[in-house]
Amino acid sequence: MLLPWEYGVRNLARRPVRTALTLVALATVVMLVFVVVGFIRGLEQSLSVSGDPDVVLVYSVNSEENIENSSIAARTPALLTASLQGTVKRFGVTHVSPELYLGTRVKSESADGGLGLVRGVTLAAPLVRRSVRLTGGDWPDAGEVMVGRLAAAKLGSSDEAMAVGQTIEFEGRSWRISGRFAAGGAAYESEIWCNLGDLQTATKRQDLSLAAMLLTPGSSPAEVKLFCKERTDLELRASRETDYYATLQQHYKPVRLLAWFVVALVSGAGVFAGLNMMYGAVAGRVREIATLQAIGFRRRAILVSLIQEAVLLAAAGSLLSGGIALTMLNGMAVRFTMGAFTLRIDSVAILIGCGVGLLLGVLGALPPALKALRLQVATSLKAV
């Protein structure tokens, strides 16, 4: 026969201070798990939504998968347009975006500045980057820029300093912010976009970093790759944009593995903390446990009741941490080498966080409960 459900619930209220301390400790451990899992999920989401399967990137063969190091001739987009037939063309406009992409120090009016990602573009950019949407202000004219919604997080600045009408400095020039844009969580959201000619003048460069091409439905990037291989004098390589970001996912795989390792370490620390607390809680209830055995309750029933108390406490801590994570952590911007992204507390993160919390409750209660039940009843009844 099992002990009544209410018995375990009442026991939690009998020691309010110990219960509160245990709840806070469990909630803290689970909160750390939510932070790390939210980081992993946010990074994966940002890379997975970045890229268009119909877009092909053409950049330098010597860039080693890093477009910032790429340098191609300014005439490359015109050569691609003249040589290939699979590019989208509407109303006489070919959907090819020549771009200059670089990392440089950007200073806002309210901060010392940080490393920002600047992309010089033309009016063809929104035709190719179809996920980009202007959320405020206007497209930049000469001497102006538009900033992604996560550009402030990338620079370590405030949103007010990156508002429309504010001024930022990079490459020795002042630039007025004319607009803000979003890209559905893609990596572009941490970038600063300006006129390609202005950026080339400011950096004293005449080359490009890449050319982005929007292919017609059914077209294959194989034709573009073949062109790059045949024109060895141009030293070009072509990659589908989704493949490029998939490569970045593999590049950041060690970071994700390290993050999961941190989850394991935090969970292990939580188990030892739970063991310590539960040993203390059970040690003060030796006579109570012996009395329950003396009046006829089986050890199995007492063990289930002790685990029930720990699981209830762990569930409360998990729910508390989950509520805080959803309201305060979900969507929080995080700086990273690739730019910036937001923590993502989704169903997977909730499942992992709450699962770890419940596991901590079971593993924390089981060893001390088994140890207390192995004691002789007569000896335990005399315990102080």
In short:
This protein has 384 residues and is of the alpha+beta class. The protein contains 13 helices and 14 strands. The strands form three sheets. A six-stranded mixed barrel has the order 4-5-10-7-9-8. Strands 2-3 form a two-stranded antiparallel ribbon.
The helicity comes to: 40-55%
Distance between the termini: 28 Å
- Chain-averaged pLDDT: 84
Q: How would a textbook summarize the main sheet?
A: 6 strands, mixed, barrel
- The string of secondary-structure elements, in order, is HHEHEEEEHEEHEEEHEHEHHHHEEHH
- The overall strand count is 14
Give, in spatial order, the strands making up the sheet with the most strands. 4-5-10-7-9-8
Q: Structural class per helix/strand content?
A: alpha+beta
Shape: elongated
What is the number of helices? 13
Radius of gyration: 29 Å
Main features:
384 residues; alpha+beta; 6-stranded mixed β-barrel; two-stranded antiparallel sheet; 50% helix; 20% strand; elongated
What would your notes on this structure say?
The protein is of the alpha+beta class. It has helices at residues 5-14, 16-49, 76-83, 125-128, 151-155, 196-203, 222-230, 241-251, 253-283, 286-294, 299-329, 347-373, 377-381; strands at residues 55-60, 89-90, 93-94, 96-108, 114-121, 133-137, 144-148, 167-170, 173-182, 191-195, 210-214, 236-240, 333-336, 339-342. It has a six-stranded mixed β-barrel with strand order 4-5-10-7-9-8. It has a two-stranded antiparallel sheet with strand order 2-3. Strand 13 and strand 14 (339-342) form a beta hairpin. Helix 1 packs across helix 11 (299-329) and helix 11 (299-329) runs antiparallel to helix 12 (347-373). The mean pLDDT is 84.
